[in-house]
């Protein structure tokens, strides 16, 4: 595994983690309508960006492996 792949996995984990935290905060009854919209939109985008980046890192790792 190269350093680039490790960095991609770390960034993917951070993006997905922040996205999940924002989505979990939606359960709070004290957030406003604007925050609900923002948390939902940003949370879904960050979570999906983390998933796509993790898939890309896996593909890069598999393609760079020597037989």
Please explain how this structure is put together:
The protein is an all-alpha fold and 67 residues long. It has a domain at 1-45. It has two helices and no strands. The protein has helices at 3-24, 33-64. 10% of the residues are buried.
Instruction: Estimate percent helicity.
Output: over 70%
**Which strand-content bin applies to the residues?**
under 5%
Tell me, rounded to a whole number, the average pLDDT.
93
What is the CA-based Rg, rounded? Answer: 15 Å
Described by strand count, sense and barrel closure, the largest sheet is: none
Structural class: mainly alpha
Shape: rod-shaped
Order of helices and strands: HH
| Low-confidence residue ranges | none
Number of strands: 0
- Count of DSSP H/I helices: 2
**Terminal Cα separation, in Å?**
14 Å
Short description:
The protein has 67 residues and is mostly helical. It has helices spanning 3-24, 33-64.
Write the layout of secondary structure elements.
Blueprint (H helix, E strand, L loop, with lengths): L2 H22 L8 H32 L3
Helix pairs in contact: 1-2
Characteristics of this structure?
67 residues; mainly alpha; rod-shaped
